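Task: fold both queries, return tokens.
Query 1:
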Amino acid sequence: GDFNGTPVFIGTSDPDPHVPVERVYATTNILKDMHAKVTEKVYTMMGHTISQDEIDQANNLIFNPVTTKI
């Protein structure tokens, strides 16, 4: 498949007891290989939760999308 520049946000904690950070890095690389425009943020010691910054990042993707002409 080809994401054709689709923006993707991936946020995680290091450590996260459920998702190893290495798995997040691997996922980011796969998505980039499929031409997604990936923003990856690793939060220190946040745990398996969602931060306000992650909510802000997601809202930015939804409400302020970057449009490009193909």
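Query 1 returned. Query 2:
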Amino acid sequence: MSWEGKNVLITGISGFVGSYLAKYLVDQGAVVYGLIRRKADGTKPKNLSEMRVEVNLIEGDLIDISTLAFALDKAEPDVVFHLAAQSFVPRSFVHPLDTLRTNTIGTANLLEAIRLKDFDPVVVFAGSSEEYGLVISSEKQYEKVRERYGIIFPEPERIPELPINEKNPLRPMSPYAISKVQCDYLMRNYYHCYGIKTIVSRGFNHEGAGRGIMFVTSQITCQVMKLKFEEADKIVIGNVNAFRDWSHVMDIVKGYCLLAERGRYGDVYNQGSMRTNSVLSYILLSLEQAGWMIDKIETMKGNKVIKCPTERDNSKMFGVRFEKTKIDKMLLEEEIEFTIEDRGIWVYTNKEKIPIEFDKDRFRPTEVPILLSDTNKIQNLGLKMEYRLEDIIRDQLNYFMKSENRI
């Protein structure tokens, strides 16, 4: 598909991904419209201002179907990218009804508006890897979660359930994840029932400069830069054992556009990097990229010591060869685990000893332990991932070099 002259409507255009997508499409010659909530001061959203991208903004609200009908009339879209959502998982535990209303009812309203107005766009929906939720990575982990939850539904047909392909069972572990599962099914149902050209992208974690400060990668890189500028003397974090499949936002943006062009209507596609790294590695690699050389780490209780924790390893795990750190491999092979009882970790560097302090309030009520994507399906459409984990970290660190971004 040539984007030249194509009308595109992006819901959630003022968000992190929406602004990158808007700029990319404008650069490709598309006419971009964006649905935004009205701002009291009338100013342009920060992300779009920083991108210096000119788009046609339409005030509206997913909860108000009449404003969606107006937006469709104005944009007359060839493609709709539906990104708008309450996307912060911890907030969904505190405000589950708000999350479900915004995400599920909002998505239903958008689809109904398209149906009732008799428009015929391709609709690419931003699903989430959180839909997979509780993924079983080993027999030992299976027994632990059985002990904790009593039941796992559906029961695993294979252990490990990694890497995660589109046929993996959905076990959402948060109100946010549940809302995305609902939207996922809504999208496919509206294709089967009404012929609306929907495509679901289940995106694994995607990061980059400008990622919201509430998200863990921004929390990490912002705190590292505060250490660099001597505005802080420690890093505070929650669960460092969690593993995520982190991609660069631009790889995901190009995947969205590829799906609009070549994706099969009514189908689902994973988007991710096909690697998995721990939160702890993200911290340590961020420190390295900021100029510290790491010799070893040690728990504050002193009973767990790992030398050269960021030493690179490219061996196969779960049948996939990907770059990880020594500490990643130890965590994945269940040689070590860090708990709240450890209180935190000391990082020994060439300059100083840096404390990583565990904060129990930053632990989720229910945790997704590991995400590792199988993206062969979208790769078969022609997608190639360009960015490494260190590229993402560098972009985020550079962003937080500006003092006004370090809030």
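Both queries returned. Flag for query 2: The first strand starts at residue 7 and ends at 11.
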